[in-house]
Amino acid sequence: MAIQRRKISVIGGGFTGATTAFLLAQKELGDVVLVDIPQAENPTKGKALDMYEASPVQGFDAKVVGTSDYADTANSDLVIITAGLPRKPGMSRDDLVSTNAKIMRSVTEQIVKYSPNTIIVVLTNPVDAMTYEVFRTSGFPKERVIGQSGVLDTARFRSFVAEELNISVEDVSGFVLGGHGDDMVPLVRYSYAGGIPLEKLIDADRLTAIVERTRKGGGEIVNLLGNGSAYYAPAASLVQMAEAILKDKKRILPSIAYLEGEYGYQGLYLGVPTVLGGSGIERVIELDLTTDEKEALDRSANAVRNVMKVLAQ
Ligand SMILES: NC(=O)c1ccc[n+]([C@@H]2O[C@H](COP(=O)([O-])OP(=O)(O)OC[C@H]3O[C@@H](n4cnc5c(N)ncnc54)[C@H](O)[C@@H]3O)[C@@H](O)[C@H]2O)c1
Ligand SMILES: O=C(O)C[C@H](O)C(=O)O
Predict the structure, then answer these.
(1) Domain topology for 7-148
(2) N or C, which terminus of the chain has less Cβ within 10 Å?
(3) Domain locations along the chain
């Protein structure tokens, strides 16, 4: 029997969607279907063809097609949702909730129709609430609906620490819990450089500044870009999660997972450490938190709950 390549659909062919599609193809994680609205069909086809034409030069074997027809996504192994509005300077991610929730509902119905057994990874903001909306609309089991925030937030933290210590980013590990907002909880106590706790290497004041910069990392890029939000690091983060799932790597990566009692929360999508593998979220890892850390996580969880109230209206 012929072995078939994996199929990955990326919904939304804008900055994050197109960048993700290209990285997925470059890593030969599967053939990629890039989907956008009918009005954007030609540019989407153009981007996909352009990517495919890079394959002989870069030496990757992956087909990339652009479309507005969900029939082309049928039987996807993985679907990544990037469709929706990004914020502009002066906006919070939460300002996007109503518009992007409608988009989540419509794209999820199409995804489920054509790929009822797929795993969905959501990027669209406000991502904790949007992941919940996709979960609710899809009717999928919780392990097959996952949100991306922690890989990106941790990557920002690791970059800033590496810069501070003038060391390789590879040797820095970070740990960010909570919602993808300014209340996220970077946990310095669980962060290391070359196995050495960061608190032994960086002054408390500097560490506080790095934590603050991480929390506001998305806004820093929004202000620099002027019209849109980050896409290179978000796309790289999606691809790391996709690789863990498609190759059943069982990596410990932070994901936005549906909590039913873990960390004391019920019925909430929130960023936590997880094991990501072929079934999606295979396990949520629970850790003991100090009183201060739990209070910070509660603030972040409350911020997500407040956004979710809009969905209930
Ligand atoms: N969770 C994260 O860490 C993270 C990181 C980066 C961006 N984001 C979010 O991802 C989303 C996309 O960001 P972007 O920079 O790619 O924006 P973008 O404007 O470049 O692209 C969005 C694309 O979605 C398409 N779209 C809109 N409605 C659609 C629909 N119904 N079906 C299919 N496609 C549709 C648009 O035509 C556009 O091409 C935003 O909400 C942004 O805030 C989240
Ligand atoms: O900041 C944004 O609006 C986009 C994204 O969530 C990010 O953190 O870069």
Answers:
(1) Rossmann fold (3.40.50)
(2) N
(3) 7-148, 150-312
Give CA separation, 73 vs 28, 31, 69, 101, 141, in Å: 18, 11, 8, 21, 20
Q: How far is the CA of 15 from the centre of ligand 1 (A)?
A: 7
- Estimate the crossing angle of helix 41-58 against helix 15-26, to 10 degrees: 30
Per the DSSP assignment, residues forming a β-bridge with 185 are 177
Ligand 2 lined by 218 (C-beta under 6 Å): yes
Tens digit of each residue's pLDDT, the chain (313 residues): 778 899 999 999 999 999 999 999 999 999 999 999 999 999 999 999 999 999 999 999 999 999 999 999 999 999 999 999 999 999 999 999 999 999 999 999 999 999 999 999 999 999 999 999 999 999 999 999 999 999 999 999 999 999 999 999 999 999 899 999 999 999 999 999 999 999 999 999 999 999 999 999 999 999 999 999 999 999 999 999 999 999 999 999 999 999 999 999 999 999 999 999 999 999 999 999 999 999 999 999 999 999 999 887 6
Q: Which residues line ligand 1 (CB under 6 A)?
A: 11-17, 35-37, 40, 82-87, 96, 100, 103, 106-107, 123-125, 127, 148-149, 152, 180, 228-231, 234
Catalytic option among 6, 7, 144, 180:
180
Q: Which ligand is nearest to the CA of 123?
A: 1
**180 in catalytic set:** yes
Residue 234 CA, ligand 2 centroid: distance in Å: 8
36 annotated ligand-binding residue: yes
Q: How far is the CA of 61 from the centre of ligand 2 (A)?
A: 31
**What's the one-letter identity of residue 274?**
T
Domain spanning 150-312 has what CATH number?
3.90.110.10
